Amino acid sequence: MFAEIQTTLKVNGLAPFSPPEDVMPERIQKAIDLLTEDQNIQGAKVRENRFRFIEKKEDKSGEELKRQIEASFASFDASKNGRLSPVEFEAACMQMGVVTKDQAQKDALFSKLAQGGAEITFDQYFAWMKSRMVLSLDDPDSVRGAFSTMADGKAGLSDADLNSLPPEDREFVKQNFKRNADGTYDYAKFVTEQMGR
What we know:
By secondary structure, the protein is mainly alpha-helical. It contains ten helices and two strands.
């Protein structure tokens, strides 16, 4: 955008634009780089904990998760109107450790949740975000859903999916999950074998 402004000014014989120091392109790029770095660190922390639900533990985190979802929505509802714009929704997702691969996926997800609208309501956000989390460790469908999220909806975990995991979790999958015909790891069968259905 900065380059386009400068080109337009030059073509029209006008003096170059000199932005304030705090919004110079170099400063903005540095801020974006730092944000990306923080996002990657947060994403890594989330991935590190994805397999913790394999250990059976009493789940008392429901209320805490509810508070986290509500806080993430409130933090980015800038207008305080109970709705999130696409940019606000993306920021709230990042705070919750939910990161999509590219802008096309972000746009498609927003459109789906907003049901064609321009904003996402709190109820839409809460229901979707709650469904993304493993709330019941004793529910096979919930555990399968968590694996499905990791596999981007595919029937098996690929080696590429496993690359985002810590080494010990990768090894756990390789040692304990059976392979599908296409070489992916069959998480559905693993859950059935471990949890009875």
